[in-house]
Amino acid sequence: MTAQRGPEPPSWLVTGAGGMLGRDLVAVLSARHPGRVTTASRAEVELTDPAAVRAAVAGHPIVVNAAAWTDVDGAEQHEEAATAVNGTGVANLAAACAEAGARLLHVSTDYVFAGDADRPYPEDAPTAPVNAYGRGKLAGELAVARLLPQTGYLVRTAWLYGAHGPNFVATMLRLATERPHLDVVDDQFGQPTWSYALAERLADLGAAAHRGAAPAGIYHGTASGRTTWYGLAREVFARTGLDPDRIRPTSSDRFPRPARRPGFSVLGHAGWSRAGLAPMPDWRAMLADALRPDGTLTSAPRPPAPGHAADDRIGSGSR
């Protein structure tokens, strides 16, 4: 008697695979689903080309979009070009997923909010972006909600850092070798989030969506807790053996930028319960897992300590 085989596991498409989050996504998904992951960098698939997007999506039941125009100040100066990627390009991807019957996990941002709240923004809070980048990202969100009401997943993240791209944590570690003191903004609040931990959470969500356990809609993919850029910088220094008192607090008006930044980017996490998942870990614990003892950022979690289950490590999707 021939044993019956179970259903073939789904194949995944990762757009924006060459970026900081994209590279972590490919690593996580390839480890969980060997041979079932297709990567697409911007050079390989231009989101503003509908035909190219349709061809890339074909045959992939799950699509994770990590592609974006991420230059916030550049978007302020070139809003039409930024929105072509973050708005129109995402609409093209959503339309292709609708045509192919694929589920889309789209990574969005806290910048869709005004940043003037005094408590965490829930997933259904009114949006009111204060800059061009936020307006473009909101256009992408609206396209996913309109075109994929039952199979579109919006995962907003913020204050992302990781091993594979420029980010605040890496910048602090570099500047520590160049300057005796660093003045860091202490009037913007957010949730520093490790890109690898977010990649694991996206993999969890995609798997839950595929088996029908996660409803479509908005999820907030940020660490728990909150801090300021100043608080984050001090924690980075303390965890790498540097003197945190070398970090001095300052205000945003000392560092004027072309694009206005939200002052409050703390997101609520109630939505994860709909998918049977707990909120992501506290930002301090996440940072501890992301930093090596030598002060460099790792691209994967450290092995669990003896006597601890693998699922106890920070960044595990089970937490």
UniProtKB/TrEMBL annotation:
Coiled coil: none annotated. It comes from the Bacteria. Its EC number is 1.1.1.133. It holds the Pfam family RmlD_sub_bind. It is an enzyme of class 1 (oxidoreductase). Belongs to the dTDP-4-dehydrorhamnose reductase family. Catalyzes the reduction of dTDP-6-deoxy-L-lyxo-4-hexulose to yield dTDP-L-rhamnose. This is dTDP-4-dehydrorhamnose reductase. The gene is rmlD.
